[in-house]
């Protein structure tokens, strides 16, 4: 991990990594973007140790990336919802997905498309002020390289519906 005081580093990437750079953190955000919101759903999808998941969720809440929303009073149970700060990470995750598809995957496991017309969606550098798609305007679908992980996340999500 980077030093918390950023000694000698005037770098927004270093600061961002302090929030989202720990192992599992971006995968948690990915799963919340894909519709998994409850602790047990995230734990089942990721296969992550409960104490590690608790630590990462607490950190994301403390950093304002996620918020806890009460969905049952007795016993108290919470869901995790992305804040605007968290939803804005979708752009970074899309760029990482594209890079992984290009250089690390023979077949992309997941594809993004615009809901209204099914047009493929990519992350790209565009002029400031250009209107970008909102998270609710896009959907992730299985790509030609989809395997058990995508199917497991979909199955976990469908259990609740």
What does it look like?
The protein is an alpha+beta fold and 161 residues long. It is 44% helix and 14% strand. It has helices at 12-20, 25-33, 39-46, 50-62, 84-87, 89-103, 148-160; strands spanning 66-72, 77-82, 110-114, 138-142. The model has no long low-confidence stretch (mean pLDDT 89).
* Low-pLDDT segments: none
From the alpha carbons, calculate the radius of gyration and give it in angstroms: 17 Å
User: Main beta sheet, described?
Assistant: 2 strands, antiparallel
SSE-based structural type: alpha+beta
Q: Average the pLDDT over all residues and give the rounded result.
A: 89
- Helicity, in percent? 40-55%
Encode the helix/strand succession as letters: HHHHEEHHEEH
Query: Number of DSSP strands?
Result: 4
Overall shape: globular
Distance between the termini: 38 Å
Number of helical runs?
7
Q: Strand sequence of the main sheet, in spatial order?
A: 1-2
Q: Strand-residue fraction?
A: 5-15%
Secondary-structure topology with pairs:
Layout: H1 12-20, H2 25-33, H3 39-46, H4 50-62, E1 66-72, E2 77-82, H5 84-87, H6 89-103, E3 110-114, E4 138-142, H7 148-160
Antiparallel strand pairs: 1-2, 3-4
Keywords, please?
two-stranded antiparallel ribbon, alpha+beta, 7 helices
Question: Could you write a compact summary of the structure shown?
Answer:
The chain is α+β, with helices and mostly antiparallel strands. The chain is built from seven helices and four strands, in the order H-H-H-H-E-E-H-H-E-E-H. The mean pLDDT is 89.
């Amino acid at each position: 991990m980077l030093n918390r005081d950023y000694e000698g580093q005037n770098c927004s990437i270093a600061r961002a990594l302090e929030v989202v750079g720990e192992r599992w953190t971006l995968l948690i955000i990915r799963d919340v973007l894909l519709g998994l919101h409850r602790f047990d759903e995230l734990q089942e999808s990721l296969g992550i140790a409960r104490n590690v998941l608790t630590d990462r969720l607490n950190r994301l809440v403390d950093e304002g990336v996620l918020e806890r929303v009460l969905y049952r009073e007795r016993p108290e149970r919470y869901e995790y919802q992305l804040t605007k700060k968290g939803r804005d990470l979708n752009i970074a995750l899309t760029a990482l997905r594209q890079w992984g598809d290009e250089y690390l995957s023979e077949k992309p496991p997941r594809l993004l498309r615009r809901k209204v017309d099914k047009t493929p969606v990519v992350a790209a550098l565009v002029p400031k002020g250009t209107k970008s798609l909102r998270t609710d305007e896009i959907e992730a679908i299985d790509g030609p390289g989809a395997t058990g992980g995508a199917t497991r996340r979909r199955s976990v999500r469908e259990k609740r519906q």
